[in-house]
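ugh ok so i messed up the first submission bc i forgot one of the chains. this is the corrected input, ALL of the components this time, i swear. 915 residues overall. if the numbers dont match what u have on ur side tell me asap before i send this to the collaborators (the ones from the other lab, u know who)
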Amino acid sequence: MTTAVATHETDHAHDDHHGPEKGIRRWIFATNHKDIGTMYLVFAFAMFIVGGLMAFYIRAELFQPGIQFKDPQFFNSMTTMHALFMIFGGVMPAFTGLANWMVPLQVGAPDMALPRLNNWSFWILPFAFTLLFSTLFMEGGAPAGGWTMYPPLMLQTGDAFPFVILAVHLMGISSIMGAINVVVTILNMRAPGMSLLKMPLFCWTWLITAYLLIAVMPVLAGAVTMLLTDQFFGTSFFNAAGGGDPVMFQHIFWFFGHPEVYILILPAFGIVSEIIPTFSRKPLFGYEAMVYATAGIAFLSFIVWAHHMFTVGMPLSGQLFFMFATMLIAVPTGVKVFNWIATMWRGSMSFETPMLFALAFVFLFTIGGFSGLMLAIVPADFQYHDSYFVVAHFHYVLVPGAVFGIMAGVYYWLPKWSGVMYNTTLAKTHFWLSAIFVNVTFFPQHFLGLAGMPRRIPDYATQFTNFNMISSIGAFVFGLSQILLIVIVVQCVRKKGPAVDAKVWDNPQGLEWTVPSPAPFHTFEVPPKIL
Amino acid sequence: MSKRILFGIFTFINLISLSAAEAVPSEWGLNMPKGVTSVTKEVYSLHMQIFYICCVIAVVVFGAMIYSIIKHRKSKGAVAAQFHHSTSLEILWTAIPVLILFYMAYVATGPLIAIEDTSKSDITIKATGYQWNWGYEYLDVKVSEDSDKNLFFKSYLAEDSNLARQKDSGIDPRTVENYLLDVDNEMVVPVGKKIQMLLTGADVIHAWWVPELGGKKDAIPGFVNELWFRADEPGVYRGQCAELCGKDHGFMPIVVRAVSDDEYAAWIEKKISESSFEYKDYTMQELMAAGETSYNKACASCHQISGDGIDGVFPSLKAGSLAVGDVNEHIDIILQGQEGTAMASFATLNDFEIAAITTYERNAWGNDTGDLVQPADIRDRRSQ
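and heres the new structure output, hopefully the right one now
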C-alpha cells in the first residue's frame, strides 16, 4: 500500500489560467478527468432512473396474475431494455466515472493519459442511448428478444433491429476507449516510486477490468455484426436452414458475456477493498492475495462461458468441464471475502455510510455467490436454468453487488469531490431502506424459481402470486428510496453541509486524501513523492 | 445474538424441507419439487446437499463477520491491531474451499451421467416448439396400419386460461383452474416406462420443462436434443416453455399425464380416431365451427381473435386483405408461411383443419367471399 507525503503546493496565482471554461463549453469540450468523471456519473444515474422505471413497469405487471397494462410483446421489450440500460448505461458508465475521478488521484497523475479520447468516449454514450431509447417508438416496437439477443428470435425484431445493433456498437467503442485510457494512465502515469504493487486496489481491479473490456467488447461487436448480416445480407451464420448454427451465437455471446459479468463486479471489489480498511482502521489484509485473486477471477472468466447455456445440449464432457471450471471461481472469490473479513477482524470499526454499503456488499454479494455455486452444479442447473432462481442470483450480484459498490464509492468520495460532508442521517436512511428492500425484492425470487416459475414471462400461474406481490412491493420501495440519493447529492453540489478537510475520514490511505477537499480542478501537476 | 441467528437459519431450513413434503402446488412454495422420477429425486437431494453446505459456510463466514462487527467496534473502545498478512492463512482458505469443491464435483457427476443416458428407452416422443404451442409426435405410433404417418397433435394453452389472460378480459385468473398451466391436448405416457423425448424448434428456440419430471432442455431449430424420464407415479405433471420465444412465451404450457398401460393404449386408440377425418364435402356451418376453434388456437395470438391483427406488426385479415383475395394464394401462405415475416408454415395442421381455417378467415368478421374450401382442395395445393 502507499504511504504518501503531500508535496502538493500549487501556485495559486496561476489558477485562473487553468480553470474550467465557462458555461456549456466546459462540458462539451471537457478534457479534465474530474469533469468527465462527473458527466459519466450523472449520465449513469440518469440511465439508472430510466432502467429503474422499466423495472417499475415489470414489477407492476407482475404484481398479480393476468395482463394488467400492455401486450406481452411490450413486456418483453421492457425486460430487454431494462437490462441494456442498467448494464451498459448504468453500471458500466458509473464505474468509468469513478475511474475517471479516482484513478489519476490515486496514482498521482495530473489527468487521464488521453484526455480527448476521454471526451469522445463519454460523448458517444448519450447518442448511443438516445438511439436505443428511440426504438421504443419504432414500428414493431423496441427489441424484445432479451438483452442476450439470441437468434432466431432476435431476427424477428421490427424496424428497431439495425438501430439496436448500432447502439451496441457505439457502447462497445465507448467502453474500449475508456478502457484503453485507464490502462495507459495506470501503466504510464503513476507517480515516481509508486510500483504496481503499491497501487490502491481500486486501480488494480480497474486495470484488470480494462483488459477484460478490451478483450471481449470486440467479441460482442462481432456477434451482433453477424446478426446484422444474417438479417440483411443473406448470410447464415446462425440460421440452421442455411447451414449455420443458432447455438454458435450463444457461445460467442457468452464468451463476451461472462467476462462482462466480472467487468460489472471487479471495480466494486476494488471500492470495497478501499473502504473496509479505512473504517476498520487497519491495513487491508492480504493485499497481494487480493491482486492475484482478482487476476485469477479474470482468467477463469474466459473459460466458463458455457455455464450460461447448459441446457442447449452439450456433450457430457463439455458439461463436466464447464461445471468444474465454474466451481473453481468460488476459490479466488472466497479468498477475497475472507480477506475482507480478516481486515475487519480485530480492527476498530465504525459504521459511516460508505462502510454500511461495503458491509452490505460483502453479505449480499456472498449470498449471490452461494446461489452462483448452486447454479454451477449442472444436474441441479437443469432445474434452476431460466427460472426466477437465476433472476434472483444475478440481481443479488448486480444490485447489492455492483450497485451497492458504486453507492459505497460515491458516499466515500463525495466529500472529496464536493468539499462538504453530506447529510449523514439522510444517507443512513437511504442505506437502510435500500438494504432492506433490495432483499424484500429479490429474496422471494429464489422461492419462485425453485417452485417452477420461468423467467421473462409477463403473467404467471396463480400459486406464484404471493411472492410476486412481495417482490413488487419491495421493488417499489427500493426504487423510491433512491430519490434520497438525488437529494443528498444535490445538497452536496450546492455546498450545503459542513466543510471537510483533505482527509475527510479518520485516517484513510491513498494519494487522493492528500489533495484539498474539494479536489481542485488541477491536481498533481507536480508528481507527489511516494515513500 | 448469534444463537438467535442460528435459530433463525434452522427455522428457515425446516420451513423449506416442510414445504417440499407437500405435493400440491402451495401458495407459499419455497423449494424445488422432489418430482416423480428417480432422477428428479436424486437432483433434489443433490440440491439440498449443496444448499446445506452453503448454509454451513454462511454460518462460519457471516458468523466471523458479525462477531467482528459486534466486538471490534470503535464505539466499544476497540483498538485496531495492525497485522495485514499471513501466508499460511491464505493457503488454508484456498485449500479448504478446493476440498469442498472436490466433494461437490464428485456428488454432482453421477446424476449428470445418469441424466445424459438416453439409451434403452421404451417410447420415443418428438416435441416440437412452435410460436406458441407444442407439437407432439409419437414416433412409435402410426395413425393407421397402412400409413407411414406418426401420431401427431398440437397442444395449445387451454381455452379458459387463454380467455382469462387477454388484457381487460374481466376474468379473474384466480377463478381459472390451473391458470396458464393447462392445455387442450395433454401428452400422455405410461407409468414406469422410459420415455425418450426428442426436442426441436420450428421457428425460434424454446425449452421443454416439466419440473416434476426433470430438468429442461432447449428445443432448437435445426437441432434435435434428447432428454428422458420415467414417471414412477401416475398423475398430471405441469410445466412451461423455459426459453424466451417471443410474445406468447408465457402462454405455451406443457402438461404430461402419466397413466397405466391400459389407459395409455385406450388413449392412443382415441387419439388416432380423433386425428382422422374424411375427405368429403363439408357444409359451411361445419367448416365455420371447426374453423373458429382452430383459428383461435393457431392464428389468433398474432392475427387476434377479432381478425384485426396488431397495427404495424401482424396484418389484419379483414376486408381488403389477402384473406378475401385469391384463394390459392391464401392457402399457400398458410401452408408455406411467408419469408421474411413472422408468418410461419402451418403445414403440420391436417387438411381438414387448414380447410376449416381458410373457410373461416374468408367468411368471418364481415368477410363475405362465400368461399367454401374443402380438405381435398388443401390436398391438391400440397401436392403442387
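quick check: The radius of gyration of chain B is 28 Å. that seems consistent at least. The CA atoms of residues 201 and 221 of chain B lie 4 Å apart.
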